[in-house]
């Protein structure tokens, strides 16, 4: 074994480990985005039992935050799925869905009419889609920032 090979081999192994970790984080983030959207839609419809079943599959360290604003029900999921060198990376996903029911419709109409001209031209208006199918999903990733 040459000296060059002895120096390059650990670097190659470290880079390979980081690449595998990054792929694992990306896969976990996709799962969180999908699950946050599904849970937000289920809870917005009032189907909390089905949402509870879906959330039962989460890893133990996942934080769940719920918020209601402007006729929307929002669910945020945050997790630090890795350990070791990548353990400080926290990934998260937030998704909001329109609440079902008469009170939710009244609140949404009040917010749209008070938001100004053109504010109602968003998803679901005139497109034939239901409020549940027009959930807005935003995913965020932050390195080492724990809220």
- Outline: rod-shaped
End-to-end Cα distance: 48 Å
Number of strands: 4
What's the overall average pLDDT, rounded? 73
Q: From the alpha-carbon coordinates, what is the Rg to the nearest angstrom?
A: 21 Å
Q: Strand-and-helix sequence, N→C?
A: HHEEEHE
Structure classification:
alpha+beta
Quick structural overview:
With 147 residues, the chain is α+β, with helices and mostly antiparallel strands. It contains three helices and four strands, in the order H-H-E-E-E-H-E.
Verbal overview:
There is one protein chain. The protein is of the alpha+beta class and 147 residues long. The chain is built from three helices and four strands. Strands 1-2-3-4 form a four-stranded antiparallel beta sheet. Helix 1 packs antiparallel against helix 2. The radius of gyration is 21 Å and the shape is rod-shaped. The C terminus is likely disordered.
Can you give keywords for this protein?
alpha+beta; 4 strands; 44% helix; 22% strand; disordered C terminus
SSE layout and pairings?
Layout (H helix, E strand, L loop, with lengths): L2 H43 L2 H8 L7 E7 L2 E8 L9 E10 L3 H13 L21 E8 L4
Antiparallel strand pairs: 1-2, 2-3, 3-4
């Amino acid at each position: 074994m040459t000296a060059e090979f002895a120096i390059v081999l650990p670097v190659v192994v470290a880079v390979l480990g980081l690449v595998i970790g990054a792929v694992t984080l990306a896969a976990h983030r996709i799962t969180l985005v999908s699950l946050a959207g599904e849970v937000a839609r289920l809870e917005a419809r009032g189907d909390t039992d089905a949402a509870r079943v879906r959330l039962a599959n989460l890893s133990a360290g996942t934080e769940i935050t719920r918020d209601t604003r402007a006729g929307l029900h929002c669910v945020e999921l945050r997790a630090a799925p890795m350990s070791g060198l990548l353990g400080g990376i926290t990934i998260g996903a937030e998704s909001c869905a329109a609440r079902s029911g008469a009170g939710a419709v009244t609140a949404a109409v009040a917010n749209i009419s008070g938001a100004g001209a053109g504010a109602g031209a968003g998803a679901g208006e005139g497109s034939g889609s239901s409020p549940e199918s027009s959930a807005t999903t935003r995913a965020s990733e932050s390195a080492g920032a724990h809220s």
